[in-house]
Amino acid sequence: MYRIFRFWWFPLVLQLMTLSVFVLLIVDGFAADTDDMAFAKVLRNTNLSNLIVWSYWWPVIIISAIFFGRIWCMVCPMELLTSLAARIGLKRKPHRFVRSGWIITLFYTLILFVGIHTLAIHRVPFRMSIYLLVLLASTVIVGLIFSRNTFCAYICPAGHLLGLYARLAPFGWSTGDSSICRSCKDHSCTASVNTYVFQGRSCGVGLNPAQLDDNTNCLLCGQCVKSCDHNNPGIESRPNPGWFVRPWFKDIFALKPMTAAQTAFCLVVSGFVVYEVFTEWKVTKELLVWMPDNVNIWLGTENTWSHGLIKSLTLFVVLPALVWLFPYGLFRLTGGKLPINKFFCIFGITFIPIMAAAHTFKALLKTTSRIPYWEYSFTDPVGVESARGILDKSLQLVPLPAWRDPAITVLSLILVGCGIMVSTVAIRKLTIAHVRDSGCRAWILYLIPGIYGGAFAVMICLWRLNLM
For residues 308 and 275, is the Cβ–Cβ distance under 8 A? Predict the structure, then answer.
């Protein structure tokens, strides 16, 4: 990988390939539209674009971030487009609010509340294509206005999620020999003169490779390697930056607090992951949606917009906030001393391993359950006729492989178990560092993995092992 990063065509060729696929997905999605949500539930799997985007691309970038860091950002076409736009744009420094990360949190929340749970962009291919076009336009517009990779660093709706999950990865970007960086005279990887060089530019998100020690923000674009190589030809031990093996969960155990924007994002995603997993089983789905359904009945909301927003607010803000606040509330009631903002930003990281494990379980469920639809996806990429055939039973889907259910069940329990253990270790380190004066009350904070992780473990056992 180290040698590949030095080639001028890497990752440019891969970015051009993903951009081409991106355009084809938009075109194919525009050909399939419906207002019938019952029909859309089948169409989302028969339309090739929708199948790829929501059942394979999104799960794959989640899993890849957990194991390899923000490797998707390396080949993302958005990074290429915003970099090219920034070369000819106004190059304005982003405002402090933009740099705070709140736009990512708000953008993601808007997509989740309005896009997915109100307009169903994940089920209607036409609406998905509009969403992808909005992303494309946003990338270019931001690039034309602001400097460097402002979109990737502060606006991309996937930015926080990939950054949080990348904290678990056993690979990371850093430098091979810190003494080489200390003796460096040109500092090509951070020099402003290299900011807009096409290949071999300084870091687009303002990082210093010599000081980089976590996976949260690095896009793995490899430009600092090329910059170091191009500006120091023939010098021994150059280039110095690289992608190295690191301890598992290093950034979780480093106990680096999240920002306020990251914390809010993490809270919303913690609720979203519960929804994604629990709605797979009819029993837990009915329990989960009971509260938002009754709130909608009580308020008398009938239109799609009000119903979707209330449902989203309840499931992705209110319920996860209650889960987060429960152990904190008990801790404070028993005399523990810890400011609430400190609890959220510091102890919020202990939710990440369990979220990642549950998200991986959902990703495996989704990708494997869609295997039968590939039989018709290339003969009918628009998917309308295939969806009609499946609904009227003139087309039959092949059954899933017999190994699928037991294999995913075992793997899911292993993943959730690992998530709980990592979270528990992080709790122990955090209590030692931040709540030494609270004595045995600190044990209350172990309710975080106990309640949140335990809910997933119990649900999976009851559902997948047919215990209920």
Answer: no
Sequence-ordered list of residues with C-beta below 8 angstroms from that of 127, at least 6 positions apart, any chain: 33, 115, 119, 120, 121
Task: State whether the Cα torsion 86-134-314-266 is positive or negative.
Answer: negative
Q: Residue 71 is which amino acid?
A: I
How far from the centroid of its chain's Cα atoms is residue 215's Cα?
A: 13
Partners of residue 243 on adjacent β-strands: 173
Confidence of residue 376 (pLDDT cuts 50, 70, 90): very high
Query: Both tokens of residue 89?
Result: 């744009």
pTM: 0.95
**Cα–Cα–Cα angle for 272, 274, 276, rounded to 5 degrees:** 70
- Mean pLDDT of all residues belonging to the chain: 93
Burial class (CB in 10 A: 0-12, 13-18, 19+), 76: buried
Q: What pLDDT shows up at residue 341?
A: 95
| CA separation, residue 72 to residues 69, 333, 362 (Å) | 8, 44, 19
Q: Which long-range contacts (CB under 8 A, 24 or more apart) does 283-287 make?
A: 283/462, 283/463, 283/468, 284/459, 284/463
- Give the amino acid at 41: K
| Positive or negative torsion for Cα 349, 317, 321, 58 | negative
Query: Vertex 83, ends 81 and 85: CA angle to 5°?
Result: 70
Percent of the chain past pLDDT 70, that is, above it, reads 98
Output the six-digit token pair for 301.
């909301």
Confidence of residue 178 (pLDDT cuts 50, 70, 90): confident
Report pLDDT digits (tens) over 90-118: 999 999 999 999 999 999 999 999 999 99
User: Above 60 in pLDDT, residue 31?
Assistant: yes
φ/ψ of 139, rounded to 5, equals -60, -50
- pLDDT (mean) for 354-381: 96
Q: What is the pLDDT of residue 146?
A: 97
